[in-house]
């Protein structure tokens, strides 16, 4: 430990890369070298700042919360056919152009957009349903690529 302390002090005296890139480091090093209380304070301040910033995340409305509140009947389930989805929820607002299919391993994915969710189909079967954002302030997935 003492050898490390001497090496850092020599770098600061010689103005080597550590001292050149971080001149405040050498100043703090000299001030806190013999004072363990100062070392604790130097570590505590950044942690307190991070905790202060973390509080803002709890004030946002999350799409996950809204999805957990809704009953499972409000959206199609995996495995339903496109005809079943259309019979139950009506015609979609928009049928987006298919994506994929360039290779045999990449299946063609069809997407139907409804007011509250987007349905993804592979070979005429539902593979996923994603809720759309209710408002601009809500945090959730981005709208589908058109």
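Sequence proposed for the structure above (146 residues):
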């Amino acid at each position: 430990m003492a050898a490390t302390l001497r090496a850092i002090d020599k770098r600061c005296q010689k103005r080597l890369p550590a001292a050149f890139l971080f001149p405040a480091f050498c100043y703090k090093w000299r001030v806190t070298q013999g004072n363990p209380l100062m070392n604790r304070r130097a570590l505590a301040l950044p942690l307190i700042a991070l905790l202060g910033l973390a509080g803002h995340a709890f004030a946002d409305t999350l799409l996950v919360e809204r999805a957990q509140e809704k009953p499972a009947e409000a959206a199609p389930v995996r495995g339903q056919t496109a005809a079943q989805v259309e019979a139950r929820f009506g015609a979609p607002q928009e049928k987006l152009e298919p994506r994929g299919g360039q290779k045999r391993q990449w299946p063609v994915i069809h997407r139907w957009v409804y007011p509250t969710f987007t349905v993804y189909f592979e070979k005429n079967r539902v593979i996923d349903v994603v809720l759309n954002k209710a408002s601009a302030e809500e945090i959730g997935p981005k709208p589908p690529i058109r």
